Amino acid sequence: MEHHRGQWGSNLGFLLATVGAAVGLGNVWAFPFKMGATGGFPFLVVYLILAALIGFPIMISELAIGRNVGRSVLVSYQRLGGGVGAFIGWLAMLSPLLILSFYTVLGAYCMQYVALNLSELMGLTSISHISGAQSFTDMLANQPMALLFTFLFILICFLIIRGGIKDGIEKFNKVGMPALFLMLVVVIIRAVTLPGAVEGLKFMFAPNLTPFTSLEGFLKVLSVAGGQMFFSLSLAMGITVTYGSYLSKKEDLVKNSLLIIISDTLVAIMAGMAVLPAAFALGGEGAEMAGPKLLFITLQDVFNAMGPAGPLFGILFYLLVSLAAITSAIALIEVLVTFLIDRDTLKGRTPNRSRLVALVCLVILVMAALVAADGLGANGLWVPFQASGRNLAASWLDFMDFISEGIAMPLGALIMSLLVGWKIGPAVIQEEVRLGDSHFNGALYRFYRVCIRFVAPIGMAFILYGQLTSFFAIPS
């Protein structure tokens, strides 16, 4: 039966949209630099294990909960879990709101880099003689331009989302995701053929278990890989529950969960192959350790070092990152829009999607303006707890990220796994999943039950501890 909010036009459209939600800055930006910061191969191993043992059971649970209730993330959790469910739902609503406050700004930075390389290609400006660090510093200091591009980024998201699930989000991702994949393949081919790029591939794939030789090293890799997995797979931020609420009862949730996780992980690894070999080849010694600056400073230095073809590859790369940011941002915004649509519907009012989307985008713009004006802490704006000198107060971006990725997401996932595993019971999820897959029993269901009851809660407790430790640390 057609849902009052609409429904996916096809399962392919749902998959592309959900993979698009997962494939964002978490893959193209965070995955390579976090891999670089934790030794490469060890990070990849832990990430894959966590995706199988924690990511899969939580994703299938979120899809089942969303489809079972067919409402927003808050209502879905509330109806299944009562007061505890409502608390999880509010955390899942808080996360996308705070994430969007800085995600849209990072997306805007990517759009600025497209414009920067385009102007270089057209001969309007010359940046090849300027270091990537200087270009980035100049960009952060230019607050009016940052605000303008942030507005443009949010405007693009508004124009897509107001079309609805089928005619807006699904239609955009059917074009956007194949285009993103093709651009990524082109950039990879160029990156791996650079002199010295093989060292970057070795860093990623050659067995190296050095970080596992100490408990401290292992916990660091576990924490970083765990936080990255949740951000990359778009778990515990309401997206999967929301997109699941638009799904037909006939769809196979097991197959869809596996396809989403495999596709997202594949793109993340491909992003690493596009970034790290280039960083090793032209980024200088220790480029893989550049952290968040890897995308905006090190990679721009790489494109500057490529000669006349550099701006072209710069445009291509930052265009695909911008596209990835948009596919994720529209999913995060839809979480909030769906809540408002359902609220109007439950109160007997006919929701006006365009008006509600505009309202959400306006709130996000106000919050993002603060982050954009702050310039990643470069422009001297006051930040809560700034006097403490801790990582969580280094900038408005870090503060928003601390509440969302540091607390709300891992805490919400921890409580959700306990709720599903011990209160409402895994059998409720099994019953919903079996509507589209009668084979969700036997060994597969036993694997799911063990993971959601024991592995996920324990793993999430470690990840939450690691995230808090990281955010509360004082940089040396």
Please render the helix and strand layout as text.
Blueprint: H1 11-22, H2 25-37, H3 41-69, H4 73-121, H5 132-141, H6 143-161, H7 164-192, H8 198-205, H9 215-233, H10 239-244, H11 253-282, H12 293-304, H13 310-346, H14 353-374, H15 396-423, H16 426-433, H17 442-472
Helix pairs in contact: 1-7, 1-11, 1-13, 2-9, 2-11, 3-4, 3-9, 3-11, 3-16, 3-17, 4-6, 4-13, 4-14, 4-15, 5-12, 6-13, 6-14, 7-11, 7-13, 8-11, 9-17, 11-12, 12-13, 13-14, 15-17
Dominant shape: globular
Rg from alpha-carbon coordinates? 21 Å
Spatial separation of the terminal alpha carbons: 58 Å
How many beta-strand elements? 0
Pick out the low-confidence regions: none
- Proportion of beta-strand residues: under 5%
Integer average pLDDT: 90
